[in-house]
Amino acid sequence: MKLYTECIACQVKVRFRDIVKLFPDEKQRMEALKAVIKVINDRIVDNTLNPVRLATELFRLLKSLSRVTDPYAKEKAEANKLALSVYPSIRSHVMAINSPEQRVVEALRVSLVGNLIDFGVAEHTPPSISELLSILKTLHIHGDPKAAAKALLKAKRIVVLMDNSGEAVFDRIIADILRPLGKEVIAIVKGGAFQNDITIHEAKDAGLYESFDEVVSTGTDAASIFLDEVSEEVLKIIKHSDIIVSKGMANYEYLTDIEHILRKTVLYLLIAKCEPIAIDTRAIKGAALTILRHFTT
User: Fold this and answer.
1) What gap in Å lies between CA 45 and CA 58, rounded to an integer?
2) What integer best gives the mean pLDDT of the chain?
3) Architecture of 72-293 per CATH?
4) Three-class HEC string of 120-170
5) Is the pLDDT of residue 229 over 90?
6) Are 290 and 144 contacting, i.e. CB atoms less than 8 angstroms apart?
7) Of 53, 73, 7, nearest in space to 276 by CA
8) pLDDT interval class at 115 (50, 70, 90)
9) Averaged pLDDT, 128-147
């Protein structure tokens, strides 16, 4: 996805929020903000820079300046704990649905609601668990969730690119539904901290190993699966997959630029939490989206 002017403004706002969190002193905050603005100024020649590349570089900069390797560790642990408190009841609800296709559609709905647990968007505040449960009852999925479900039911090997902590617990239900049907479902998580995204270090506490056949680290703290950074293991897993489930906006922003390289069917699951994503997906801001892209030769 191309870089919009709003992406730049969003990055300044979100990174300033990080700065306030990481630096107690006003002088330190000013120096950190100047460093952020310098990177933005140096890197933005035109709108060909991918917004996820910029976000990754800026978050790495702040981790380096603050010497804090995981700025959102506390928030991630709390999000996983709260999601786990409602996971059994949500899972039971989905598993009780008779039709396999409808079970998958409901699992996608749960996964989409989880995508609201996001600290990386300037104009978005993550809902509470009670608010998420309320949203789950009424969430309308834009796109064709039945086609998405059929694609998953047809596939044998499914790779899920995980996004936020807390959300990852909700994503487990996709694997819980598909594995008893003979599918192999693999979770790809980050190797290091990027915002509140799930990493290999929180995977056990979130229960991912209980739901997925494998949980694999990207080997990097990048916001998505940057092909020049991820491990050979991840590249091999993707190569031998039938479908990629891409969670969240960052993965959408990056994967849409490399679909021609991946040469795979991709199912994007995300909430359009900002105007650039809404424009790019031709949806309204706030829409819950299933976007199925079949690779054709």
Assistant:
1) 16
2) 93
3) 3-Layer(aba) Sandwich (3.40)
4) CCCCCCCCCHHHHHHHHHHCCEEECHHHHHHHHHHCCEEEEECCECCHHHH
5) yes
6) yes
7) 7
8) confident
9) 88
